[in-house]
Structure formats: structure tokens, C-alpha cells
Amino acid sequence: MRLVIQRVTYAQVRVEEQIIGEIGTGFLVLVGIEQTDTKEIADKLLKKMLNLRIFPDENGKTNRSLREVNGSVLLVSQFTLYADCRKGNRPSFVHAGEPGQAEELYEYMLKCCRDSGIPTQQGEFGADMKVELLNDGPFTILLDSRDLC
């Protein structure tokens, strides 16, 4: 599993010109799910993500968590995070999770975020989405389950 976490002051996702998810201060999180991912892996990455201290404190140091700044999460599924570009010029996605399994894990992650008390918005799994954001910093973190689990 891969999470691309972007600290934002604003983010939204549109499907067919309709805004379906929108947040202010918080994290825009692009989620890539691999064939071998499980709920246990998702739990570990979500725990790390929700406790990251990457917002500035009163001294400008990255020392505050999402909770401490009353931030939100916009979770967007993105299978292209598992693009394999080693051969040729057309990416292969053979390592990306099968759609049924990936959607189930994505929905599980949404539920976990919401159950944690963090306001959570979402994209639409499998849809052609337009994502807009104002990256704060810019500050972008990559969490990969192979590094944490």
C-alpha cells in the first residue's frame, strides 16, 4: 500500500463537474492498493498517517498533528501509484490491487478515518476524477507499507 500525503490548505475532488469531496486544512491522501494488501497493513499506515506531526507550531516547527489543527482528510483512490515503468514507455499496472479487493480496502480505510473522529471526505472509487489542491509548503510525504510493515 502506498499513501501520498499532501498537507493542504484546501483540496477538492470532482466527478462530472460535481464536487463530491472538499476539505480545508488537512491532508489530501492518494491511496494506492497492491494485490497483497490487507486490513492489517491499512491499519498500520492509517495509524502513522493520522498521527504525523507535520503542521507548524507557534515557532514554525513541524510539530502539530492533524487533530491539533482540527484538520480533515480527503482520501482518493489512485491505482496508478503502482505503475511499473521499467520496461517500455507504457506503464504496467499488474501489481495494483484487483478492483473488488482494492475498493473494499479503500472503503475500510474511509471507515477507519471517520471512526477516528477526523472529518473525512472521499473521491469516487474507479471514477474519472479531477483533483484540485493548494499544497501547503509544499509538504508531501510518501508512506509505503514495504517500509513500515
CATH uppermost class: Alpha Beta
Largest sheet: 6 strands, mixed
| Number of E-type strands | 8
What is the 3D form?
Answer: globular
Order of helices and strands: EEEHEEEHEEH
CATH-defined superfamily:
D-tyrosyl-tRNA(Tyr) deacylase
Q: How many helical stretches?
A: 3
Structural domains: how many: 1
Q: Average pLDDT, to the nearest integer?
A: 94
**CATH fold descriptor:** D-tyrosyl-trna(Tyr) Deacylase, Chain: A
Radius of gyration: 15 Å
Quickly give the CATH architecture: 3-Layer(bba) Sandwich
Could you estimate the helical fraction of the residues in percent? 10-25%
Q: Uncertain spans, ≥5 residues at pLDDT below 50?
A: none
Oligomeric state, counting identical vs distinct chains:
single chain
Q: Kindly report how far apart the N and C termini lie.
A: 10 Å
The percent range for strand residues is 35-45%
Structural class: alpha/beta
Produce a short descriptive summary:
It is built from three helices and eight strands, in the order βββαβββαββα. It is of the alpha/beta class.
Describe this structure in words.
The protein is an alpha/beta fold. It has one domain (2-137): 3-Layer(bba) Sandwich (D-tyrosyl-trna(Tyr) Deacylase, Chain: A). The chain contains three helices and eight strands, in the order E-E-E-H-E-E-E-H-E-E-H. The chain has helices at residues 39-51, 99-115, 145-148; strands at 2-15, 18-23, 26-32, 53-56, 62-65, 72-77, 120-122, 129-144. The strands form two sheets. Strands 1, 2, 3, 6, 7 and 8 form a six-stranded mixed β-sheet that branches. The chain has a two-stranded antiparallel ribbon with strand order 4-5. The longest helix has 17 residues, at 99-115. It is globular. The chain starts with a strand and ends with a helix. The mean pLDDT is 94.
